Amino acid sequence: MPHIGYRMMKGELQAMGHRVRWEQVSASMHRVDSAGIFERFTGLGAVARRIYSVKGPQSLVHVDTNHKLIRYGIVIFAGIDGYSRKIMYLGASNNNKASTALGFFMSSVEKFGFRLRVRGDQGVENVGIAHCMFTVRGCGRASYISGKSVHNQR
Predict the structure, then answer these.
(1) pTM of the model
(2) What is the pLDDT of residues 56-73, one digit of tens each?
(3) Rounded distance between C-alpha atoms, residue 32 and residue 122, angstroms
(4) Pairing of strands 117-120, 75-81
(5) Separation CA 63–CA 121 (nearest Å)
(6) Beta strands 117-120 and 60-66: pairing type?
């Protein structure tokens, strides 16, 4: 049965009267047709994950804000260590100002110290953090890396 995925294979096996677990279907398909799985994976427009590496703890922190609760007047601010995935700060506020984001960032700096680099999106709430990093670490060494918000996570 070429060109079928896990769900179709599990359905076919159940129609034949076999009871199998998802793990068994997945392992068997990988063992028998790993090239076909990769072909279907790339054919669906799925993007293979990039290899992510950070030199060590405290070398890169990802900062971002979440606005899903904005209708209730809540904005969530977070900073996560890129190496260990440790939450460096997590806070909520009723505004999305750069001074608020900088306040949360500085509270983590007081607790853990300055990181070598910070990665964040190009939102106006991160201007204070970027200015702080450029002041402390310098401009010519990628102290603040801005990019799309979807790349701010591991």
Answers:
(1) 0.66
(2) 888 899 999 999 999 999
(3) 45
(4) unpaired
(5) 8
(6) parallel
Q: Which residues of 115-149 are buried (b: 16+ CB within 10 A; e: fewer)?
A: bbbbbbbebebbbbbbebbeeebeeeeebbeeeee
Domain ranges of the chain: 6-43, 61-151
Reported as a single tens digit per residue, the pLDDT across 74-83 is: 999 999 998 9
Query: First CA to last CA across the chain, in angstroms?
Result: 36
pLDDT in tens, 20-41: 998 998 888 888 877 777 776 6
Could you give the CA distance from residue 115 to residue 106 in angstroms, rounded to a whole number? 11
Q: What is the CATH number of domain 61-151?
A: 3.30.420.10
CA distance 150 to 123: 13
